[in-house]
Amino acid sequence: MICRLLPILAALSLQACATTQTYSAKPITATVVDAETGEPLEAVNVAAHWVLHDPVAWRSAGDLELTETATDKEGKFHFPGWKGKAPPVVEQYETRLSNEDPAMIFFKSGYRPRSVGNYLQPERLRDDNHTWERYSDWDGKVIKLEKVKGNLEDYGNIVDGITRGLGSGIKCGWKKTPRLYASLINEKERLDKLGVRNNLPSMATMQYYFDIQKCGSAKDFFREYLK
To answer: What domains are defined for the chain?
Structure first.
């Protein structure tokens, strides 16, 4: 609940309010298939994040949680549940997750990336529609990915946008989704060899980001994921 208290008590009351309730999330298990053949897709990178918002201006306030996994030979992936995560206070307001969380990102070389989320409700901030236990509408469902057709530059531009905002507010957030970023680094090398212009991250780009947040050596960190 957004705290509406007397200004003289606001700081203490908001801090108490921020720690009274915590978010939890149910496990998610689903399947990824080829949109044309219906065949299961193995080794699809899947990232899930739960994005906090300032409930007044509805601006993103960073990720509350971020995690990744990959599909198995049957195209299945699984995210375990989690609990006990308190939303921080931003500008005297308790941040909230919207009803569309979690958002999930799917990437596999040669396929159009896809993002899915829950069906967003207009009453996303009303107390009677807000839940502290989160779930995914896609649990138990089948997600279809389409093979890339046509202009590869268009494909490169689409792939470049899938990580926008991912890991925001998490120090060295790239370390939460190493397989995804390793796959993007490899995809850049593939497109570069084909002469396709793209803005996908290179190792040099990742090192630049690592340096800004003092995250160490990007090359050392990604080494085991680039095999």
So the answer is: 1-149 (2.60.40.1120), 150-227 (no CATH)
